[in-house]
Amino acid sequence: MLRFLLILAGLIVTIVPVFAQIMEQKAQPIDRQVKDGFVVIALITKDENWKEKWLSPPSKPPEFKGAYELAIGEKAYILTFFAGAQAINGEVILYCDIKTISPSGREKQYPANLCYKNAKTPKPNYLHMVGLDIGFTRTKEDEIGLHKFEIGVEDKARQIRVPVMVSIKYADENIGK
């Protein structure tokens, strides 16, 4: 019996910090990764006017606010940018894939699709937006916790895939009520 209690105490000491760490996971609304000069940035924002901001004149650079938490009925957008892509026969071609990961660990993979094709080679030091238009609204049926999004952007000229991971928290709105 004593041995059982010691094993149980050991498990509790091991599991509690791990569980606490999982419960305290914080949202990461922005991620930036670079591979061989190919830069990919993803951002979760609640800015409803993100497109207007992005299309503003270059003299007024857009400012986007990162979204850490989403309440029921709120909408968020995932914006994905790149720099340093190379051209194939004068065209830049990018493919994007998406994987979503729920707080319970359930994954959903969306296959790679063409997300950027331009006959003009983009300026290498400028940020450009890929053609993903990801918007989502939280509903009361959504799982509470940290929702993760992995976006892979592949530069077809170099066969380089750069993954970025962003996340947002769906908090329990009944806490404190």
Describe the structure.
The protein is α+β, with helices and mostly antiparallel strands. The protein has a single domain (27-170), classed as Immunoglobulin-like, CATH 2.60.40. The protein is built from two helices and ten strands. Strands 1, 2, 3, 7 and 8 form a five-stranded antiparallel sheet that branches. Strands 4, 5, 6, 9 and 10 form a five-stranded antiparallel sheet that branches. The radius of gyration is 20 Å and the shape is globular. Residues 1-11 and 13-22 have low confidence and may be disordered.
Give the class-level CATH name.
Mainly Beta
CATH structural architecture:
Sandwich
- Structural class estimated from helices and strands: alpha+beta
Overall shape = globular
Number of strands: 10
Distance between the termini: 43 Å
Structurally, the number of domains stands at 1
CATH topology category name: Immunoglobulin-like
Radius of gyration: 20 Å
What order do the SSEs take from the amino end to the carboxyl end, as H and E? Answer: HEEHEEEEEEEE
**Total of DSSP H or I helical runs spanning 4+ residues:** 2
Strand content: 35-45%
| Fraction of helical residues | 10-25%
Give a quick account of the main beta sheet: strands, pairing sense, barrel closure.
Answer: 5 strands, antiparallel
Overall pLDDT: 85
Identify low-pLDDT runs: 1-11, 13-22
